[in-house]
Amino acid sequence: MAELRTEEEQIEAIKNWWKENGRSLLLAIAVAVAAVFGWQGWQKRQDAQATNASITYQELVDSALALRSAPDAGAQRATAEHLSETLKNDYSSSGYAVLGALLMAKVNVDASDLDKALSELVWAEENAQEPEMKQLAQLRIARIKLAQGDAAAARDLLKSANATYFTAAYEELLGDAFVALGDVAQARKAYDSALSVATPQAKAVLQMKRDDLAQGDES
Amino acid sequence: MLQTIRENSQGIIAKGIVGLIVLTFALWGVESLVSLTNKEPAPAEVNGEDITKQELFQGMELQRRQLLAQMGENADPSAIDENMLRQMVIESLISRKVLLQSAKDMGFHLSDQMVDQIIVSTPQFQVDGKFDRDQYEAVLRSAGFTPLMYRDLIRKEKLIQQAQAGYVLSEFATTEELKRLIALDRQTRDLAYVTLKADPEAVNVTEDEIQAEYDAQAASMVTQEQVAVDYVLLDRAALAKPEQVTEADIKAAYDQMVAGFKSEEERSARHILIDINSDRDADAALRRARELRDEIESGADFAEVAKRESADLGSAQEGGELGFNGRGVFVEPFEDALFALKKGEVSEPVRTEFGYHLIKLEDVKETEVPTLAEAEADLREQVAQANAEQDYVAALERLSDLAFSSNDLQAASEELGLKIRSTDFFSRAGGSDLVSTSQKAIDAAFSDQVLNERLNSDPIELDSGRTLVLHVRDHKEPHQLALDEVRDRLEAQLRGEKAAKALNEKADSWLAALREGRSLADIDATASWEIVTGVERGAQALPSAVVRTAFSMPRPAEGVARYDSVAMNGARAIVALNAVTDGSDELSEDEQKSLSTVIANQRGQQIYQMHSDALRKSAEVEIN
């Protein structure tokens, strides 16, 4: 047992152990230190990335706000365009990029460029991570299609989306599409199911649309 | 013994135990031991993340302050239901938490520098347009935050805001959608209506029916327990003797007043209130306020507009006139806006709890120190009141003794010179006199001591200057009401029911006849249509039930009216829809721009609401 040895024997034992294991021990420590620093560095880079994306996004929001009160400002729109491109190119995996594309779709609708708006929404739909975000993009794609006069495409898109989020908005838009297609009975059905799930704030407009399609009870 | 410990500690088992302890600490740290002793659960858990006690406490504190501020001067902290407050705050903390989690899941991030930037540019923390650390810390302290807590709060709020901006701001309205909405909104309808009224006098109610109704309701027809009391009232105001105040006292009070006098500014203003109600949400009210402001800016007379539009009926008649007022009279946002105005200027819309206000500053005056002669009457009263305070406190103490030591109010009345007064009978629900409108007095009157033992009550403080002691004079037990006592009421009730039924039958038969093609004159020669053409959705001149019904009816075929009926407060209207005229979908560029902003914003709010509802619904929440 160890406690029976003399001091010299103990030192000798340690020396031997060091000769055998010293190199691998040092290596292990070096690897550990490198791993910690590497992890920290990576973390820092991630943070810096996220911070840059956040700042860019915030600027885009401010720009969109400015455009809302003055939608014709060409220079402002170019700025927004540039910011959104930066988000898409450099931070495409972040939620900021998708929301940025949605914002740009709005900017383009306000500038009456429906084609450009559509392509922004399609990008958002393809790059969104969460199903909710995808469905929001799809909903807005259908609205653009309807605005472009392609009610049938809007209807098919809405039906095939099998939306689990924003169902009231989906049903309302489906009603709008049926109205455009002249199918009053289907439109009525869609508005009714929208009314059954809509928030109180959304109901006023919905009720107005539904009432306009009222059917005579005695006819 | 030490030797044995030393030897044992080197054994294999001892080393094993020490090794285990080392491992535990290495892997789980000190918390593993601390948490064993501190097992109290967090108030709520949201998707595996705790809402801490501290968060809940802070939230409740903040909410409490807001509630008290809303209650105004007579705020009573005990009126706040703690349980309800707690539930409300937990629910809102959960909503914030899921929104925050969702923002983080989307990869949202805010660096320390960004938080700094936000804090530095907050106007409340600035002095002369520059960030001021002392100001910052003072504001935080008065709001009950430490800098660390505040930073954390800002970070969370901003992350949530970023996501919110994405959802709300990205919503749009296409030209086609706007055109459809505006055409629907501008649609007008030609209609006619006739109102049938219920006539309770025209129906028969027999004695048998009244008896049957009495039998059916007998159980609920019981009077409440009532008492009538005698009381003596000690009133500080009555103790004041202004005529006994000396000239010297008045002079002293005047000197004191002059020393403490600060000239105070008073401002005379007019205002227009655009209220927020079920027909008009905050956005619509704000829009209306802006329109009115533009109208005034372009030359309309403020007073005329106030008369026409203001929802503050008290001042509307006077052209919105509010007279001269100092600070502390109006609610804070209103006051701030009023005191920031220049003479003759009209404010931007100001939001208060009542709605949006437009304020016009008419005149400003500084009040000056009144002369001794002017102030004398007031000062005499003040000094007398202050002197009365001492007498009041002394009398109060005596009243308390006398009430306790005697069986009736006689002694207190004689010694303190207080008249014994009496009340009528009142129940626990209270009545209309001084005693029965005070909950404290009612409770005392029905207490065991006063009601059953017939002792005097303890002194009851009605307010800071009035105290009374009461004694029960008479008591009525609850009793069953006889048929005679309630006959009239039951008859009126039965008449009402029968008349309503008759009315419905009549309306239904008229409706059926009209739908068969008969004319109204043919059905009843005395009835005639009220005919209105071009009715808009928001028409004010007609009963709103009639308008609503007309707009929910199907479009009539050419020349063939549609008929429907609607209940209206003891009456029924039969509505004939003659024609529908679709509204024009023409929009000027300006109209389109402002409408699209409003509609897009509304839709954005709705979409965001759906987003946060969905998050809340799918979250795993545990409330402890």
From TrEMBL, chain A:
Return the GO cellular component terms, semicolon-separated. plasma membrane
Q: Which InterPro entries match?
A: SecYEG/CpoB_TPR, YfgM
In alphabetical order, the GO MF annotations are: protein-containing complex binding
Q: Where does the record place it?
A: Cell membrane; Membrane
Keyword annotations from UniProtKB, A to Z: Cell membrane, Chaperone, Membrane, Transmembrane, Transmembrane helix
Query: Per UniProt, what is the membrane topology?
Result: Single-pass membrane protein
Pfam families cross-referenced by the UniProt entry:
TPR_21 (PF09976)
Stretches that traverse the bilayer: 25-42
On whether Transmembrane helix is a keyword of this UniProt record, the answer is: yes
Q: Which domain of life is it from?
A: Bacteria
Q: Does the keyword Nucleotide-binding apply?
A: no
**Which residue numbers delimit the Ancillary SecYEG translocon subunit/Cell division coordinator CpoB TPR domain?**
15-215
Under PANTHER family, the record lists: ANCILLARY SECYEG TRANSLOCON SUBUNIT (PTHR38035:SF1), UPF0070 PROTEIN YFGM (PTHR38035)
Protein name (database record): Ancillary SecYEG translocon subunit/Cell division coordinator CpoB TPR domain-containing protein
Q: What's the source species for this entry?
A: Marinobacterium lacunae
From TrEMBL, chain B:
Q: Where are the transmembrane segments?
A: 12-30
Q: Which UniProt keywords apply?
A: Cell inner membrane, Cell membrane, Chaperone, Isomerase, Membrane, Rotamase, Transmembrane, Transmembrane helix
Q: Does the keyword Transmembrane apply?
A: yes
Give residue ranges for domain PpiC. Answer: 264-363
- The keyword Cell inner membrane belongs to this UniProt entry's keyword annotation: yes
Q: How does it sit in the membrane?
A: Single-pass type II membrane protein
* Classification via Pfam families: Rotamase, SurA_N_3
One cellular component term (GO) for this entry is: plasma membrane
InterPro entries from the entry?
PPIase_dom_sf, PPIase_PpiC, PPIase_PpiC_CS, PpiD_chaperone, Trigger_fact/SurA_dom_sf
Using the record for this protein, list the coiled-coil segments as residue ranges, or answer none. Answer: none
Compartments where located = Cell inner membrane
Q: Name one GO molecular function term.
A: peptidyl-prolyl cis-trans isomerase activity
Which family is annotated? Belongs to the PpiD chaperone family.
Protein name according to UniProt? Periplasmic chaperone PpiD
> Which source organism?
Marinobacterium lacunae
- Classification of source organism: Bacteria, Pseudomonadati, Pseudomonadota, Gammaproteobacteria, Oceanospirillales
